[in-house]
């Protein structure tokens, strides 16, 4: 293994008052990441460029060195093993909770996977054909899913989202983004599907049980990232003359890894169990690191507490990543043979409960990296690093030069 790239999802943050003006990363005890930073180089990265709020899929694509648009719907369907056909459009969906047309929670109180799977079965049994279009729902992880439209008529992915992306806003109406007949037809169909899905979910047995327990119901579908296919690109093995593996769990990163020619290593762990996820990914790394030139590991841990606005839990998640994952890496890592890069796809500030355009820290340790005097890994310390400030598209060329 020549390169180990570890992406800590949503790692970046903003100062927290209760942490004395420190971010969760700055407040966390991270002796192993700090040690890597002390022995290597650091810097900051805008994964999609200055002033741009990254999406997970597009940030991941950019960081791999590809300046192409990857729709969330197409990427996530590929991530669950479905290749969309010419007459199909896929959407990323989330079970949400709405009251009088206002989205109160975009994750329906973080409904668990068992309940979400049951809701998905209800939708598939009852939603059927809408406006002459076959509708298929596939639940992926917890509140997340995929919605696929299939029709003999031509469909268009050039339509807008129904997901408002922030709680407290109205569920959006899908609109065509061009004047084509296909886009207009697709947008009308999406709106009919959205209304029918809400009616089915309101009468759902699962939601009736959740109401009895005083839990938030999952009574609407939030659709985003319409896509039909991904653009043709030169794969990573051809582009960089290296063999690649990706140790990822989330559908969008899995889909893009497949798309870019990586071997995707299957890992399974309970939803929301950060420690189990880290252990499974360590196992996958150890079993594959001698087989590949470059290995990418994606760790979800810090992102969820950021979206939930929980800085204490985010701090603990970061500490757990350091204690479980990087402690283990430090025991066998050979800095003469391999370059370690630790960074993030985007910031998820707890104060915003959403992705932001703020830069993320990155560190390089090992092969080709030189000590730059920075003593710790954090947003503030990374500003002093010798790597400087880069864009996501610059990351892979930078890493390839080092190895």
Layout of SSEs?
Elements: E1 3-8, H1 24-27, H2 31-39, E2 41-46, H3 56-63, H4 72-79, E3 88-99, E4 102-105, H5 113-127, E5 129-130, E6 133-139, E7 144-150, E8 169-170, H6 181-202, H7 205-212, E9 220-227, H8 236-240, E10 244-247, H9 251-259, E11 263-265, H10 274-288, E12 294-299, H11 303-307, H12 311-332, E13 339-343, E14 360-366, H13 379-382, E15 388-391, H14 392-402
Parallel strand pairs: 1-12, 1-13, 2-15, 10-11, 10-12
Antiparallel strand pairs: 2-14, 3-4, 3-7, 3-9, 4-8, 5-6, 6-7, 13-14
Give a quick precis of the structure.
By secondary structure, the chain is α/β, with parallel strands linked by helices. The protein has helices at residues 24-27, 31-39, 56-63, 72-79, 113-127, 181-202, 205-212, 236-240, 251-259, 274-288, 303-307, 311-332, 379-382, 392-402; strands spanning 3-8, 41-46, 88-99, 102-105, 129-130, 133-139, 144-150, 169-170, 220-227, 244-247, 263-265, 294-299, 339-343, 360-366, 388-391.
Q: Care to describe what's here?
A:
- This protein has 403 residues and is of the alpha/beta class.
- The mean pLDDT is 95.
- Strands 11-10-12-1-13-14-2-15 form an 8-stranded mixed sheet, sandwiched between helices. Strands 3, 4, 5, 6, 7, 8 and 9 form a 7-stranded antiparallel sheet that branches.
- 36% of the residues lie in helices and 21% in strands.
- It is globular and about 60 Å long.
- The chain has 14 helices and 15 strands.
- The chain has helices at 24-27, 31-39, 56-63, 72-79, 113-127, 181-202, 205-212, 236-240, 251-259, 274-288, 303-307, 311-332, 379-382, 392-402; strands at residues 3-8, 41-46, 88-99, 102-105, 129-130, 133-139, 144-150, 169-170, 220-227, 244-247, 263-265, 294-299, 339-343, 360-366, 388-391.
- Helix 3 packs parallel to helix 14 (392-402), helix 4 crosses helix 9 and helix 5 (113-127) crosses helix 6 (181-202).
- 52% of the residues are buried.
- The termini are close together.
